[in-house]
Automatic annotation (TrEMBL):
Keywords: Cell membrane, Membrane, Transmembrane, Transmembrane helix. It is found in: Cell membrane. The chain crosses the membrane at residues 35-52, 73-96, 102-124, 131-149, 155-176, 188-207, 219-242. The lineage of its organism: Bacteria, Bacillati, Actinomycetota, Actinomycetes, Streptosporangiales. This is Drug/metabolite transporter (DMT)-like permease.
């Protein structure tokens, strides 16, 4: 389920570029897009929690440990993920998009799977196994082929710096999210992240004398698509996949996003995929198979991964249970 959830998240995020382009054509500004995206996402997640109280509980963590999970530090961290991490990454990304071609932006931004993998290994959260190395190389090469297959690109120094800044910020975001994703139910975590990001965008709108929301219904329709598909659904599936796979595997799976973007552009904008792009897409998908060839992680108890057992206090089957 973990890799499948990560792929679904990547597909939802990949659709955002198409929705965003259609929203821009309908008169939506980048500032309005970010503000409405995060605010509407926070409202939708809040309504979901009100209508479905069961989503406030974590089925993967025993009830006896749930009370120790949602500490004030965890809640503040979740809000900070949105207010600082996600808002900063989105701002850098869309600022870079105004200065450089989308293909080159994606090429620079998708260095983050490599950054996440290296950082996770250095922090001791993941092991640099041969399977994971092979999957990272295959996915990176596939992404390179997909993006370079779009044709010539124009290099822009400032845009490139902003794009790499977005990649570095997203790397930190994923690593920090990995520390709290096991301590909050996914819907609550996503709601807090969206609320934090919406607050940051609201403050930004006040400082910059407001954001124009006077566009037509077409603009609101595409913003609703971004909020529902490329924000709420994308974030929920990403957090659910992250907690099952770990940061490096989740980041590698996210390289499926530009493949989806390119394919949707071909379907909606009448573009034709080149043989190079087809080959790149197949390489990215094959990286999923490479990751699945890894030996199943030892120390699992039922459907709960070993890292979940350690944090939830569930004894391993190989460990004797002693009673004092």
């Amino acid at each position: 389920m973990g890799p499948a959830l990560c792929l679904l998240s990547a597909a939802c995020f990949g659709a955002m570029a198409i929705f965003g382009k259609l929203a821009y054509a309908a008169g939506v500004s980048p500032g309005a897009l970010l503000l409405v995206r995060f605010a509407l996402g926070a409202v939708l997640l809040g309504m979901l929690l009100l209508l479905r109280p069961g989503l406030r509980r974590d089925p993967m963590i025993p009830d006896r440990t749930a009370a120790t999970r949602s500490t004030p530090v965890v809640l503040v961290t979740a809000l900070g993920l949105g207010a600082v991490g996600y808002a900063t990454q989105a701002g850098l990304y869309f600022s870079a998009l105004e200065l450089m071609d989308a293909s080159l932006l994606s090429l620079v931004f998708y260095t983050y799977p490599l950054l996440v993998t290296l950082a996770a290994v250095l922090l001791g959260r993941d092991r640099l196994t041969p399977g994971r190395c092979a999957a990272l190389v295959v996915a990176s090469c596939g992404t390179l082929l997909v993006l370079l297959g779009t044709g010539e690109v124009t290099f822009h120094p400032l845009g490139t710096a902003l794009a790499f800044g977005a990649a570095a910020t997203y790397t930190v975001y994923i690593l920090v999210a990995d520390t709290v994703v096991h301590r909050l139910p996914p819907v609550i975590l996503a709601a807090l992240v969206m609320t934090g990001a919406a607050l940051t965008m609201a403050v930004r709108a006040l400082v910059t004398d407001g954001t124009d929301l006077g566009f037509g219904w077409q603009g609101w329709f595409w913003l609703a698509c971004i909020a529902v598909v490329s924000t709420v659904l994308a974030m929920l599936t990403f957090f659910a996949g992250l907690r099952r796979t770990g940061p490096s595997t989740a980041a590698i799976m996210s390289t499926f996003e530009p493949v989806v973007t390119t394919a949707l552009a071909a379907l909606t904008l009448g573009e034709i995929l080149s043989p190079v792009q087809w080959a790149g897409g197949l390489l990215v998908l094959s990286s999923v198979a490479v990751l699945q060839l890894r030996r199943k992680r030892p120390g699992q108890h039922g459907d709960v991964p070993r890292r979940e057992q350690d944090r939830a206090g569930i004894p391993s089957p190989k460990q004797p249970v002693t009673v004092d």
